[in-house]
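Q: Start with the shorter request: fold the first protein.
A: Done. Sequence, then structure:
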Amino acid sequence: MSAPPTVTWSAANARRMERQFLLTTAKPGQAGPGEVVDAMLAAQAQVLSAAELSVGLRMDGATRQDVRDALWGEEPSLVKTNGPRGTIHLLPYAQLPLWTAALPAVPSGPSSFKPEARVTPAQAEEIVTAIGEALDGVRLTIDELSEAVVARTGPWAGDLVMPAFQGMWPRWRQVMHLAGQRGALCFAPDRGRKVTYTRPQDFGEPMGAEEATRQLVRRFLYAYGPATSHEYAKWLAGPPGWASTLFASLSSAGEIEAVDMEGEAASWVVAGDTEFPAQPAQGVRLLPYFDAYVIASHPRARLFPGRAYERALNRGQAGNFPVLLVDGVAAGVWHQRRSGRRVTVTVEPLDRLSARQERGLAVEVERVGEVLEARPELVVGTVGVGPHA
C-alpha cells in the first residue's frame, strides 16, 4: 500500500481560505450570497448582523442589504433556520434538499430535560408535523405558532415544562430545532419587534438520508479538509463513533482518502482532491463573531498560535470573539461599535503589524464600513472582549 499524500498545514489553510473567498473576494457575477454561503457550507446567524458581515466581506462591493435581499427577497437564495449543531444558520436555499435530509440523520444524544418534561419520538413527530402545517403559507409569531401547535396536538404540548430565561416555555419548543432542520420551519421578516416564522416553500423533496449524509461529508472535506472524523463530529455536534464509522465507510467506497498533514492523525480529503496552493495565505482579514471559517477549521493550535489561543478563543472554542487574521492565522481580536452613520472598528493586534499589514488592515476596515453601510473609523488599541480584556 502506498503512503498517503503529504500536505503542510499552511497549504491546507490557504486552500480553505481560497475556497471560501477569504483570499480573493467573489467578484460581481461570480457568486452571490447564496453561492458564498454554499462555499462556507453554512453561516451561523444567532446574531444576524454578524452573519451579514461574514457573507458581505467575502463579496466584492457587497453590503448587508445584498444579504438581506437574498434572505427576504421575492426569490430568496438564502434561508435562516436551524443548521449544524441545531443552532441558527443561513443556509443556501438551493441546498435545502441536502440539509433537510442530512441533519435529521445525525444521531442525537440523550435529552437534557427531566423525564417528566420530555417528549416521546411519536410526540416529536406530531409536533413537527403540526409546525409545518401551521406555518404553510403564513407568517406567525412564536405565541401565534404556539397556539396553532397546541390546537393541532393537544394541551400536553403546551405544558410549561422547559426552563427559559425568566420563566418556562411550553413542551413543544424542545423540538423546534428539529422542525427547522427538517424543513418545516424557518425565520421570516420581523413583524415590528417580533420575530416571525414560516415554512420554506418550493425547495423540493429531501434527498435520501444515506446519500445526503455521505454528500455532506464530502462537501465538508472540500471546504475544510484535510479534517478528521472527530472534527466533523464536533462541527455537527454528532457522536464521534458515528462519524468514525461513516468515514470508514466512505473510505472503503473510495469516496474519501487519507493524507498526512504534518503528522495529524487520520486526516481526510475528498478522493483525488489533493492539489494545494504552493504559496501560504497572505493578507489581513477581519472575521466577525461565529464566522464559519474559524469554527470549522482545525487544528485550533495552528489557526490560533501562541497568545492567540488564549486571547481569541473561549476555553478552546472558536467563534465567540471577532478575529483578526494575518497571513491566514489569528493574530488579534477586534470590535465594532456603531453610532448613527459611523462605525468605530477597534483592533487589537497581538504583535506589531508591518507597514504592509497596516495598509491591509485599513483596507479591510473600509470594507467593514461598506458592508455595514456606515463611515468607518479605525482605532488600534485594547478590545474589551475575551480573556484578559
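Q: Next, the second protein, separately.
A: Sequence, then structure:
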Amino acid sequence: MSVSRRTLLTTAAGAAVAATATSTVPAAASERGASEQGVSDIASKEKVFRSAADYAVKKLRAVAPGVTSFPTGTKFEKWAFSQNGDWVGGFWPGTLWMAYLHTGDEQFRTLALASADKLAPRQNDTSTHDLGFLFYPSWVTAWRVTGDDKWRAGAIQAASSLIKRYNAKGHFIRAWGSLTDPKDAGRIIMDTIMNLDLLDFATKQTGDSQYLDIAIEHAKTAQRVFLRPDGSTPHVFDFDPATGAEIGPNTVQGYSPASCWSRGQSWGIYGFTTMYRRTGDRSFLTTARRLADFALKALTPDNVPVWDYTAPQAPNDIKDASAGVVMACGLIDLASAAGRPEYRAAGLRLLEATSRTCLTTKSTRADAVVARCTRNRPAEDGIEISLPYADYYLLEGILRVLKPRELDKAIDLSGH
C-alpha cells in the first residue's frame, strides 16, 4: 500500500470512528464498521480520481500536439488562444507537467518544456501581477523536474519584475495596469495571493530576503483589508496609491463590493495556506481557515460552487467548477497544515463532485477536460465554459491525493 493511500485510509477511518464515538454499538464493532466504511469510501474516490486523471491524459494526448500557443478558455467547446499567454499562460505547460507526473510519458515532458519556453519574454513583464501564475507551474516546475538552471534563472527574473509593482506606502502589490498608468494604481485583488509563492522561491534561491519580505507585507495587507467578520471576501480593495490610505472594497468579477466571488475565496484559501507553509506565520493559517469555513458553509449539496456565494440568485445560480478545484487543492493543503482532517474530507468531496459531474466526457467536440466554469459573470464573458486553470488544478488536486511525493517534486509542498 502506498504512503498516500495509507494516509487516506487512516484519515477516513479516524474521522468515521470519531463520528460514531457516542453510539450505543459496542466499541469494537463500531470501530470495525467505521474503518471498513472509510476504506470503501476512499477506494471509491480513488477510482473516480484515477478515471478523471486518465480521461484528462487521453484528452491531452489528442489535443496537445496541435496546440502552438496558450489556451485561454473555450468557445463552443474549442480552445481560444493567446500568443503571449495573457495571465493564464503558465497553466498549459503546468497541465502538461501534471500529465507527465501521472503517466511518466516523455511526450508530456517534451511538450511542457516547449510550451514553457514560449513564455520567456514575459519574465521581464512589469505590467502584471500574474507572474506567479505564469512562471510557477511552468518554469519553477521545469527547474524542479529537470534541474536545468535556465528555468530557475528565468523564474527569479520574473520575481524581480513582480516586486517592481510593490507600493511601499500601502504595503501591497498592485494588481493591474502598466506602472506608468495611473488607472488602477491603488487596486489590489484577491488573486494576487497566488502569485506570492514565486517570491518565496526567489528568496530561497538567491538568499535575498526582499522577495519574501514583500510577499509577507502584501499578504498582511490583504488579510487585513479583505477578510470580513464572517470569513467572506470581496474581489477588489482600493487604496490611494500616493498615500497608501485605504479607500474600500470593490469588485470586477464578483456581483458587488459586498458579495463573495467564489474563485477569489478559493484563491485565498490556497494562497494563505501556502503563505503559512512558507513562513510559519499562524495568522495566515487562521485566515485560510476562516475563508475555508465560510466557503464550506456556502457550498450547495452538489459540491460545485456557484460563481458568487452571496449574489442574489445564490445558491440557485450558474456554476464555477474552477473555483471548486482550486478550493479542493487549498483544503487538502490546509488539512495537512492545520492538522484538521475534516478539510481534507471536504477537499476530496469537491474533487469527486467535479470528476463525476463537471467533465467533458460526453462531448465529441470538447478540447478541455473540465466544463461548467465561469470566467467573468458581470461582463457576460465565459459563462459555464472550460478554462485552462480548471484543468490544471483538477490534476494538481488529484495528484495531491494519488501521488503526493511526485507532486512535491514539482511544486514543493514543504513547510518553511
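Q: Describe the second briefly.
A: Residues 1-27 have pLDDT under 50 and may be disordered. The two ends are 29 Å apart (CA to CA).
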